[in-house]
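2024-03-11 09:14:02 INFO queue: dequeued item SRR1 domain-containing protein, len=298
2024-03-11 09:14:02 INFO validating residues
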Amino acid sequence: MTSEPCKETAFASGDDEQFIVVKRSRKKSGRRLRVSYGRGEKIATTVCYPVDQVSLERIDMVMKNACNNTELIKYSQQIIALLLKPLAGRQLSSIWALGLGSFSCSHHLGCEQLAVLLELKHYFGCEVYFQEPCLTEMEKRWLCSHAICLSETKDLLECRVSDDDNDNENIVLFYAPHCGHAVYNSVIYAHRKKLKNIIIAGNNLHSMDLTARHSELNQKKCSVRDCNLKDLENSYFNELEALLLYSKICTVLEFPIFKSNFAVFNDTALHFLLHNAQLPEISEARPKYRLFRHEIMI
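2024-03-11 09:14:37 INFO prediction written
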């Protein structure tokens, strides 16, 4: 199949009349970063450009190959064994898959990640919800045909756990490998009163540099128009308060290495609170992202 020439889209914002050109190639897919300039600040927002429409038959073939991969089947069994530890006899009531991306082609990381998700769905027999803004219509149809519910909301600040305070037996798994800090922070904030009822499968929070990201900045690197270092550190904590507090007390079980494609689950782990752990005191104020706004998908 021949490819079409790259399409270019220009964006402008404010009186500065500065343009950022985003090139879109038919050969590549995924998210492109749009940077808009306003008065005295620069804010990046992730904008999704879906891949070309791959046929339903092609997607089905790609996913069948992934699901029939012997290594992936054995790997899924390891993940199931890992999940049974924090469940400790409790039920997995639902799985929320966040940010897996496209899975139309075998080289997409979402392909193997979705195959593992299907194994989890089959083993635990629970409802699975898929929250991903960059899906094609064919991918949506494929998910629906495999009894996976498409999320009707993009709100990550909505609690997905039962309001029943006495219901401690039903657990929700957030399956979100390789998401951004803001995504994890939003999930933790939304469940700040129900953190013992959730498990997060995502980037290892213990290996994230959550405290020193801006420590190497000095005043010389901060222009007059920018905030000073102290303001920057305060903004960092305010935006990721839930994530920072949770990461200090959560228990972590690391995923094994997926040898045939290291990047699929690189530095991924399960995160959960032990039964006797004390809930972190997370502020009721809803997170407002600026430094990490580019990590929230639209």
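2024-03-11 09:14:37 INFO annotate: The first helix runs from residue 56 to 67.
2024-03-11 09:14:38 INFO item closed
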